[in-house]
Design goal:
Elements: E1 36-37, E2 42-45, E3 48-52, E4 56-57, E5 68-73, H1 94-100, H2 110-116, H3 129-147, H4 191-201, H5 211-214, H6 216-229, H7 238-243, H8 248-260, H9 266-282
Antiparallel strand pairs: 1-4, 2-3, 3-5
Helix pairs in contact: 2-6, 3-8, 3-9, 4-6, 8-9
GO molecular function: carbohydrate binding; chitinase activity
InterPro entries: CBM5/12 (IPR003610), CBM_sf_5/12 (IPR036573), Glyco_hydro_19_cat (IPR000726), Lysozyme-like_dom_sf (IPR023346)
Protein name: Chitinase
């Protein structure tokens, strides 16, 4: 934000003052998605004024066609539109994230998610804008299903907790036999998964599995680790499924295909698909083909 310099006069000496810093222009009427704009029409959006170079409707400045010409900042600076992507480059804005998960647990912060993106920079950042949005929607739709809408941080069936220690692994279960229950957005479980995820992320999750339920960024990183590197019962990672055009159904197969695909649990599959459709619509894109498994 531009600063304003102050000048002082000493005694009665005449002082030639520098030209005053020009103040930011006033913002014109805000851009309206339903309005029609023609050559020369000016609107404001995201702290800038924009002038249309030809007829346009429903193309938000700055757009992709070159119709909008940036006339500079207005109103004293920039103010991000909550419906626009996060400055980190993530295709889901915080406002959209909150709309997707209206009842989420406060643990699952948007900031935790965006902080985790650096661990896997190709996630929702590969291919066309449509592919990026589809991948983000696919990830969040599956996460929604696994956590009841980002409500559950840990697995609810405590009777399962002792079952996730594979003592046949050479490193055993140093945090305790019942310490490797499901946690986080994809409900990471089993000692070998905590070991593998921790090794990949540079975090000692084998000895400190509780970090996944105490640190939002770590929790999101474990989910992104699975999404980007693990194929589970499928034949490809969920990331590869989305960026290579195999469709949302293959992400379901990679996450829980052994229990849901091939007609085993169609209601669960449909629940994931419905949420994916909803999220792609919210992000302004289409779901594509091959939605079920």
């Amino acid at each position: 934000m531009a600063g304003v310099a102050a000048a002082a006069l000493a005694g009665s000496l005449a002082v030639t003052l520098p030209a005053a810093t020009a103040s930011a222009a006033e913002c014109t009427s805000p851009w309206n998605s339903s309005a029609v704009y023609r050559n020369g029409d000016t609107v404001s959006h995201n702290g800038h004024n924009w002038t249309a170079q030809w007829w346009t409707q429903n193309e938000k400045p700055p757009g992709t066609s070159g119709v909008w010409k940036d006339k500079g900042t207005c109103g004293g600076g920039t103010s991000p539109d909550p419906a626009d992507p996060d400055p980190s480059g993530f295709v889901v804005s915080e406002a959209q994230f909150n709309q997707m998960f209206p009842n989420r647990n406060s643990f699952y912060t948007y900031q935790g998610l965006t902080a985790a993106l650096s661990a896997y920079p190709a996630f929702a950042n590969t291919g066309s804008e449509t592919v990026k949005k589809r991948e983000a929607a696919a990830f969040l739709a599956n996460v929604n299903h696994e956590t009841g809408g980002l409500v559950h941080i840990v697995e609810q069936n405590t009777a399962n907790y002792p079952h996730y220690c594979d003592e046949g692994q050479p490193y055993g279960c140093p945090a305790g036999e019942a310490a490797y229950y499901g946690r986080g957005p994809v409900q990471l479980s089993w000692n070998f998964n905590y070991k593998a995820a921790g090794d990949a992320l540079g975090i000692d999750l084998l000895n400190n599995p509780h970090l996944v339920e105490r640190d939002a960024a770590v929790a999101w990183k474990t989910a992104l680790w699975y999404w980007n590197t693990q194929s589970g019962p499928g034949t490809m990672t969920p990331h590869d499924a989305m960026v290579n055009g195999h469709g949302f159904g293959e992400t379901i197969r990679s996450i829980n295909g052994a229990l849901e695909c091939g007609g085993k649990n169609p209601a669960q599959v449909q629940s994931r698909v419905d949420k994916y459709r909803q999220f792609t619509q919210l992000l302004g894109t289409t779901p594509g083909d091959n939605l079920t498994c």
